[in-house]
Amino acid sequence: MAKTAGHTKALGVEQLEEDIKNLECCLKTVTGADKIEILRKLAKAYMGTSLEKSLDYGQKSVETAKALGNSKVIANALLNLGVIYQNLSNYGKALECQKEALQIAESIGSKDGIAKSTNNIGSIYLYQGDYDKALDNYLISLKLQEEIEDKMGISMALNNIGYAYDKLMNYDKALEYFTNSLKLFEELEDRFYVAGSLNNIGNIYHHLKNYDKALHYFLRSLKLKKELGNKAKIANALNNIGEVYYGLNKFEQALEYYFRSLAIIQDVGNNWGICNTSICIAKIYVKSGDYALADEHLDRAFSLAKEIKAKALIANCYSWYSELFAARGEYSKALEHYKLFVKTKDSIFTEESSKKIAEMQTKYETEKKEKEAEIYRLRNVELAEANLAITEAKEIIEEKNRHITGSIEYARRIQQAVLPTPEKMAAAIPEYFVVYRPKDIVSGDFYWFSHINDRLILAVVDCTGHGVPGAFMSMIGSMLLNVIVNENRETGPAKILGWMHAEVRNALKQHEADTETMDGMDICLCSIDRKNNRLIFAGARRPLYLVRGTELIEVAGDRKSIGGRQREERRIFTDHKIDIRSGDMIYLSSDGYVDQADAEGRRFGSRRLKDLLVEIAGYGHARQSEVLLAELDSHQGLEDQRDDIAVVGVRLNKRRCY
Fold first, then answer.
1. How far is the C-alpha of 95 from the C-alpha of 634, rounded, in Å?
2. Strand-pair partners of 537
3. What strand order describes the sheet that includes 585-589?
4. Per-residue pLDDT tens over the stretch 487-510
5. Is 124 in contact with 81 (CB distance < 8 Å)?
6. Cβ partners under 8 Å of residue 221, min gap 6
7. Is 363 helix (H, G, I), strand (E, B) or coil?
8. DSSP class of residue 89?
9. How many whole angstroms separate alpha carbon 188 and alpha carbon 202?
10. pLDDT digits 0-9 by tens, 540-549
11. Which residues are registered as beta bridge partners of 562?
12. Bridge partner list, 529
């Protein structure tokens, strides 16, 4: 599992109980900073046995610390309290505590505090299913831990990055990070974290269906956890062993371990664990045909998952509801719940959504074929012939879906290859971020940049449509920018847009009277002249936002697109020249961010985006990206993404604005 900053030192059960008694005795005799430290230690000690008592001591430690007024002490107490709320699956409160601790650490310049807070924030996002944001925070933490040479912090960050890669299903990367963290924890002789790392490596082998190795690591982990006396971790290990037996189709043994895990985790009071194990039990009953018990455990899990707002668990419930309905022969309900699964899972694994919909469409088509088979049966057609027809139809549909999905995924790899690499952009731009979120596997939005002489040319382009049609247009746009700027050395934004417009119309034969193709693209493009500290901007239906201090300057683009219908004799775009000041932030974007709707159908809106940009412009580039994504996710909720999204932010500097 993901590691949070702060844990109970490796102790046996009896030793742990004795230490708790000694700490509670000491609490009666100490005051001030000593009292806060005792309260914090008690909160940690109870974390693996009684979360209720742990929370009580954690809250008292924060209250006492705030009364004392020492910033560093307050931050440490908040870090601990945030971990307790996370274990209680109260992610809102957990995030609130960690962010407050982070603000304090930043205000006093504590790299250690910032590293711990970002690590813990990453773990909260991980449990909520926001794996990209989790990975971003873990990488920030790792960088800081390496700067201050904190071996324990480095070990934890490596472990957590591995866990994020595990959730993103990049198992080779996950195993690499888990193995490195295990070596460091063994060097530190910390059995608590060694047990966790063994468990995580076991999970990877389980995913890879190497059940012998998975069981080997899980049993080693369980042995250590029993020695430490941490009930929550013991329950996790038992559940994982159950998962191995499930993978081996040994359902009786799996159910035994699941129920042992559930009994312990209920005693501890960890709702995430209760929910996860209940789903595991339900899937056994689905497979064994005991549908009433499957329904009972799924209902319990679903209720808890919604209560703690754990997207991954909600998605898992929908998936198994679908399996349950399919097993009962209720294919319409199965399809309905699979669509809910896809809708929920889409924000976690965007690429997976198209695959799952394709699979469910196959199931739906199979249902229709089965109905046809019933008609044939009533007409005294041999059942064997009907089953053969169904099987053949199903195989044809599945093969077509595999070919279509495979082709689109190959197109995604091509599209990713033409985007600027992070390394190339970082070499040219000291401070920048990119928020890039395609609606489907491939995107109609793209970002582009080039470095010509003393000028940096930067663009965000929004092509007509999204998905495959938009992706075709994006490839045309990227190719034209390469030809116009890189080959023909044109750096004037208005001239570049004019040239692009003419070439798009030529490429799509839009000048011909009988053409049916009026596709085009909107674009915001700027040229940054680092020698003269000047920015030149031109836009086609897209603006440039520049934030200077607390002021936002919006530079509107021309109200005409690249490509499409042209009524004027010649399409001319306008250059806007702006003198650069040190610290200015510029933002280029497609319209996908502002057009995203919430549950009531309300757009995020440009006014709200501009206010947000003013608020975050003073943050570091990584933090700005994090806030933009968090605000978007909060607004969107479980609603479908409406369009492709691309936002690029760049910090300008007089001495090095490139």
1. 14
2. 526, 576
3. 432-437, 645-651, 585-589, 544-548, 551-555
4. 889 999 999 999 999 888 887 887
5. no
6. 195, 196, 198, 199, 202, 237, 240
7. helix
8. T
9. 21
10. 999 999 999 9
11. 521
12. 455, 534
